[in-house]
Amino acid sequence: VGSEMCIRDRLYPECEIEQAATLLSEKRYTVAETAALTGFTDPNNFSTAFKELYGVPPTTYMEEHLGEKTP
Hints:
The protein is an all-alpha fold. It is built from 5 helices and no strands.
């Protein structure tokens, strides 16, 4: 399971995580809902992939970027 997560995180398209960042900044969905909307079945895997790309967990990103539009 652990190695599957690593492989999935490395192969997962960055555009899906960028879409998640947009959803999180709008604060319309929870982190778990955002994970599901962007194709992750496990919110923990989503959080790991998100933090790898943005350097902060999704909840922190959501608080820091509330209302901002991402490209």
